[in-house]
Specification:
Distance between the termini of chain A: 63 Å
Mean pLDDT of chain A: 92
Order of helices and strands of chain A: HHEHEHHEHEHEHEHEHEEHEHEH
Number of helices of chain A: 13
Number of domains of chain A: 2
Radius of gyration of chain A: 22 Å
Low-confidence stretches of chain A: none
Shape of chain A: elongated
Strand order of the largest sheet of chain A: 7-6-5-10-8-11-9
CATH architecture of the largest domain in chain A: 3-Layer(aba) Sandwich
Oligomer: homodimer
Structural class of chain A: alpha/beta
Largest sheet of chain A: 7 strands, parallel
Chain lengths: 300, 300
């Protein structure tokens, strides 16, 4: 028996104990990910973005993003776009819900999972593209917060997101899920040192801004100065034009930025708190800062 | 044996099976909360904000916020402020870590827990205070998202947060935790109907804005018009001055605002997405919208 195109039909995977299933499941752990330079993208939205990135990357002469895709028959029936996205590039293997559950660490597997290759790039590659807006996560521990910052950076049109050496692993399944596909939208640099990134950015003409609740500068001031900029004005009162290419540093959830991290920056900028909140969640602060830069740069 | 002040020393609670412990633990469930009109605030930050609200409320002739506080000896030694905050108002009961773990649903209890009375207020009370900025959660299901919106509203200086009838219960321990104390900072209205809230706000001169990815108006336009407003200008091109008293509607995580909810609004406003992100997390969108209104109102 053959399909219309002459290929034999794929046999659905139904054994959750099969070696191949175990190999995929092992990617929930960091040692396997690091050794194989692969990670899991789970659920329709993440896999869709992974396949789009795969297609675009190959079309541009780049490397493979997705190695394998496993999906339930129901999922493919519901989302026919997956077979279109994969067409000519890779075969989607049909798997039972039990097999998919064994492959992933979610309580409710979402019918589709992709084995992806690491997508991070070196800092030099990011800098070679003349970035205007970069977010750096400094020792951020919570996968959900990392995802929120990455997603906010993506929405604000940032050119890259950099994770410091002791931040959460962005390839951890919880972090991948919380980026909702944004991990495949913009370059990510991993395991970087704050002082080194700041120095290289500064050398590339990029200003280094620390998001710091105790900062001497206020984001409102920077926004107002930028909005009111007159044609020939060289330096604002704050000393910094928000429309300049900028690297934002965001600190650990509990401790904020360390003294050394703050000293790596050119300016310390506070996000105004108008109400009684004692502090901002790092995701909220990053959203406000990155959107403020993006608006100023769009205008400038 | 007596303390310096002549009172007998409190006997630490060490029996996790005691009725009192079970009574506290039951507040993790909605039926008990609803019947007793009480909920749990866990951890130093939430309890601190609860006690501050309790003190301020009583000083202003208002009602009790905190009924009981249980803490480990270690927690009180580490944070002496709790005994100062409670002084003259209520006694903090010392409890073992086992008792605290039995009272709460957290994997890592944080040494202190407060039994609080419901803090929500009627819509009429909010409107009587001439609010300038209100956030409404329309069928938001995730406790973490509800907390992020409440916290962003608090940071933006909003005057109230309203939960629609089918939103997550803000008194659910996960939601309380994710507000990190902001639940005690600003009035909360629960179980409201969107159309009713919109009508009452409109009657009170408050504009109703729907945060909607497909909105005809763009938040950048509203911000630019507001920033460039000249003294005698009556109506901007968009039709809406962002510095006006405003109610923002934020929709369900997966579906956004329903047709009926959109129709309750005066204007549908899109948060710009500059990058490749397909949509914004509701917490991110709420942050950008509420901060935009707050800035315009501060300026206006």
């Amino acid at each position: 028996m053959t399909n219309d195109d002459g290929r034999p039909p794929a046999i659905p995977m139904t054994n959750p104990g099969a070696d191949r299933v175990k190999d995929v499941a092992k990617l929930a752990g960091r040692p396997s990910r690091t050794r194989r330079k692969q990670f899991l993208a789970e659920g329709p939205q993440a896999v869709r973005e992974a396949l789009k990135a795969h297609r675009e990357c190959l079309a541009a002469g780049g490397t493979v993003v997705v190695d394998e895709v496993y999906a339930s028959r129901e999922c493919l029936d519901r989302y026919p776009e997956f077979e279109e996205l994969a067409e000519g590039l890779l075969s989607i293997r049909i798997a039972s819900e039990l097999v998919l559950a064994a492959m992933t660490d979610t309580v409710h597997p979402q019918g589709i999972v992709a084995v992806c290759r690491f997508v991070d790039v070196p800092l030099a590659e990011v800098l070679s593209r003349k970035p205007k807006l970069i977010a750096m996560l400094c020792r951020i521990q919570d996968p959900g917060n990392a995802g929120t910052v990455l997603r906010a950076a993506d929405a604000a049109g940032a050119d890259a997101v950099i994770f410091s050496a002791s931040s959460v692993d962005v390839y951890n399944p919880k972090a991948v899920r919380s980026t909702v596909g944004s991990l495949f939208h913009l370059p990510v640099v991993l395991g970087a040192e704050v002082a080194e990134v700041a120095a290289q950015c500064r050398a590339a003409g990029i200003g280094v801004l620390a998001a710091d609740g105790y900062g001497a500068l206020n984001l409102d001031q920077l926004q107002d100065e930028s909005a009111a900029r007159s044609f020939d004005q060289e330096t604002p009162e704050s000393g910094y034009w928000l429309e300049k290419p900028s690297l934002w540093l965001f600190g650990n959830e509990a401790q904020g930025l360390s003294t050394a991290e703050l000293e790596s920056s050119d300016y310390r900028v506070a996000v105004p708190v108008y109400g009684a909140a004692e502090s901002l969640n790092v995701g909220t602060a990053a959203t406000v800062c990155l959107y403020a830069s993006a608006r100023a740069q769009q205008r400038g």
